[in-house]
Amino acid sequence: MTGLYIHVPFCRKKCPYCDFYSVGFREELAAEYADAVIRNVRHYGGSYDTVYFGGGTPILLARHISRILAEVDAASGAEITVECNPLEMDKETLTGLFNSGVNRLSVGVQSAVDSELCALGRTHTFEQARQAILTAREVGFEDISADIMLGTPGQDLSSLTYTISKLRELPITHVSAYLLKIETNTVFAKNPPSLPDEDDTAKLYLTAVHELEAVGFKQYEISNFAKGGMTSRHNLKYWRGEEYLGIGAAAHSFHKGKRFAVKRDLREFIASELQIEEITDEAPNEQEERIMLGLRLTEGIPRELWQRVESALPLIPKQYYKIENDRLSLTPEGFLVSNEIISTLLLPEE
């Protein structure tokens, strides 16, 4: 079944590392945006087994999410996720989300060290993030994910280990651990902070993998770890090459065999009766995409796919991959250089 992604391009404040499309939040603009989302949901129709509100700061749209979901044909047992900033997670807002059918939250914790949060331009403290997660659990949410960042200004192995130890104490089922990447057109690109070097960043990543697995979070994708099989069903659609429909300014889709995107223009999205699709790939190479995306997962790819690239495997150092049960997958060390590995594997044969 298809997944539904809804992009919410509003933030109170732009983080200095963020390259995602967002604008300043205004309630009247949010209401107009929600109206436009609903028009598009009605137009596309369809039934969905995952719904994901991404951003931006989607929880800012909280008072409109119930009426959006009222228009979505969500399958029984659908996973419905909203990304959250801890500062917006008061009990009333969370109760409204829970009652509207949202059953999964993704919380931008980023670090348990306040000096690291400050260096990232975050405006919450770890204590505020901790309380927000506890409140969400009190309201009834059982599937809560926490985002953290790796390779950030001031971070070292000791502070990372401390962050993971504090996460262990929280009622969360999932952790996303993202390496900080300096993107163009961000504040960090114009004024680069002092970051751990490449070797130290690699150590931070490998430490995160080890420490998270040690406290019950099993790695299933380059940056994602879950307890008890509580993987992100929506994000797995991306990596397994399944279809999803994106609605909203800057949203991307893989829908009915085509990849398309919507312009990063909130005003145009609101003004248009229906969102304007800009085709990005009329006929995606399904096999190459399944290899490229599948190698992001610890489950890897089946023999039918890796035979396509078997001749290039001798070019890859053996510590970077493994073949088990007829599936090819990357090791944590391989994940660190996955882009280079995938490029090597997919080089056209001469």
Give an overview of the whole structure:
This protein has helices at 27-44, 62-69, 91-100, 114-119, 126-139, 157-168, 187-190, 198-214, 233-239, 266-271, 286-294, 303-306, 332-336, 338-345, and strands at residues 2-8, 10-11, 23-24, 47-55, 73-84, 104-110, 143-150, 174-179, 218-221, 224-226, 244-247, 252-255, 258-261, 278-281, 301-302, 321-324, 327-330. It is α/β, with parallel strands linked by helices and 350 residues long. Strand 12 (252-255) and strand 13 (258-261) form a beta hairpin. The radius of gyration is 20 Å and the shape is globular. The mean pLDDT is 96.
Task: Write a concise keyword list for the protein shown above.
14 helices, 350 residues, three-stranded antiparallel beta sheet, alpha/beta, 25% strand, single chain, globular, 17 strands
Overall geometry comes to globular
List unreliable stretches of 5+ residues. none
Counted by DSSP, the helix tally is: 14
Distance between the termini: 39 Å
How much beta, percentage-wise?
Answer: 15-25%
Q: Strands across the major sheet, in which order?
A: 9-10-8-7-6-5-4-1-11
**Could you describe the largest sheet, including whether it forms a barrel?**
9 strands, mixed
The overall pLDDT average reads: 96
Short account of what is shown:
This protein is α/β, with parallel strands linked by helices.
Topology:
Layout: E1 2-8, E2 10-11, E3 23-24, H1 27-44, E4 47-55, H2 62-69, E5 73-84, H3 91-100, E6 104-110, H4 114-119, H5 126-139, E7 143-150, H6 157-168, E8 174-179, H7 187-190, H8 198-214, E9 218-221, E10 224-226, H9 233-239, E11 244-247, E12 252-255, E13 258-261, H10 266-271, E14 278-281, H11 286-294, E15 301-302, H12 303-306, E16 321-324, E17 327-330, H13 332-336, H14 338-345
Parallel strand pairs: 1-4, 1-11, 2-3, 4-5, 5-6, 6-7, 7-8
Antiparallel strand pairs: 8-10, 9-10, 12-13, 13-14, 15-17, 16-17
